[in-house]
Amino acid sequence: MMNKTNGATPPDKQVFTTGEAAKICNVSQQTIIRCFDSGRLQGFKVPGSRFRRIPRAELHRFMQQNNMDQSRLGTPVIQVLVIGLSSEETDSVIHNHTVGHNIKIHHASNAWEAGFLAHKCNPELVFISSSVSGLQEQMVQNTLESPDGIGPMIVVVKNNHQDPNVPSKYDEYNETIKKAVLQLLST
Fold first, then answer.
1. Which CATH superfamily is domain 77-186 in?
2. Mean pLDDT of the chain
3. pTM of the model
4. Where are the beta strands (DSSP E) in the chain?
């Protein structure tokens, strides 16, 4: 659905129909369908139908590759999943280094909740506390990876500091989060 005020799509919309993609790209729906069918535009078909769907990231890549105006796509929301770390410990560090970006942070305290949130928000960046039992970095990566091998950046944070007043461990912890956020924004 297009935003009536400026023609941009809602920033949290993650999947588009061929008609929506055509409006955003300012081309005909048939052009989008041809690009999809030829493999130039990736996506998926709705099971049991002929309807095609295009993920936001793929539409962004396609528009970039074809030098199209991306202003109608809107500002994407960067989804971050934090597992086993408190919001007090992580959110301020993440927000301090994402100024000017639309970011949404989701928190999970255990493996089950993490799986549910990962499926719901499709994160681009995942922080995992080393103290969460039942989660292994490679297993999380394999689970969240798309069929084309693309998945979120996963960072295991050594959460062995108990007191934020101990500067060496706390600074190391913040630096790990900062580096991951800056790396994500540079891609």
1. Response regulator (3.40.50.2300)
2. 80
3. 0.58
4. 15-17, 44-45, 52-55, 77-83, 102-108, 125-129, 153-157
